């Protein structure tokens, strides 16, 4: 059986990818197909989330094994078959390609194609330019007219770290010996 996934971005309106992949493939295979379709580097930590109909995150499937205190089992992409967790047309997933920037692709399983198999994933439709893989937060802040990140962080562009001494930290001696 084949699965046909539709991949969209909330950052770029005209971006769309459609990937057809065998149901017995792993989430790692889908991960690689997505990255190949958008020409992203494959050296970043990523995650899939199975979602409910409202796009609320449910089960996470990670690129590498991670310790979690989640109510769900820890699933890893290369050992988790698509057919074990993606079972219905219109099922929703999120693919976080930039965890630090909290950026993801929205994925919907568009079609189940019975009695067909494929050895590899295929991008069957590609429209638009994907969002940049990495975001320069300073560039984004300047584009939004909010100034430089450093200026925002410290409150003004005239911040001086040496002023901390005048705020009551100047007489603290950090080199005293601790009691034995």
TrEMBL record:
Top-level division of the source organism's lineage: Bacteria
A Pfam short name: PRiA4_ORF3
Residues in Plasmid pRiA4b Orf3-like domain copies: 8-131
Bias kind Acidic residues: ranges: 148-180
Region (Disordered): 146-180
InterPro entries: MM3350-like_sf (IPR024047), Plasmid_pRiA4b_Orf3-like (IPR012912)
Name of this chain's protein: PRiA4b ORF-3-like protein
Source organism per UniProt: Paludibacter jiangxiensis
């Amino acid at each position: 059986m084949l699965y046909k996934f539709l991949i969209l971005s909330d950052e770029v309106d005209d971006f769309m990818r459609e990937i057809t992949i065998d149901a017995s493939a792993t989430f790692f295979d889908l991960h690689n197909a997505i990255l190949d379709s958008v020409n992203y580097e494959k050296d970043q930590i990523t995650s899939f989330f199975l979602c409910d109909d409202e796009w609320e995150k449910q089960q996470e499937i990670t690129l590498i094994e991670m310790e979690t205190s989640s109510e769900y089992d820890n699933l890893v992409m290369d050992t988790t078959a698509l057919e074990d967790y993606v079972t219905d047309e219109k099922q929703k997933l999120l693919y976080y390609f930039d965890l630090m920037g909290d950026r993801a692709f929205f994925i919907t399983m568009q079609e189940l194609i019975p009695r067909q198999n494929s050895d590899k994933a295929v991008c069957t439709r590609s429209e638009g330019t994907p969002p940049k893989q990495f975001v320069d937060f300073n560039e984004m802040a300047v584009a939004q007219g909010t100034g430089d990140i450093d200026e925002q962080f410290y409150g003004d562009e005239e911040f001086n770290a040496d002023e901390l001494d005048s705020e009551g930290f100047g007489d603290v001696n950090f080199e005293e010996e601790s009691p034995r």
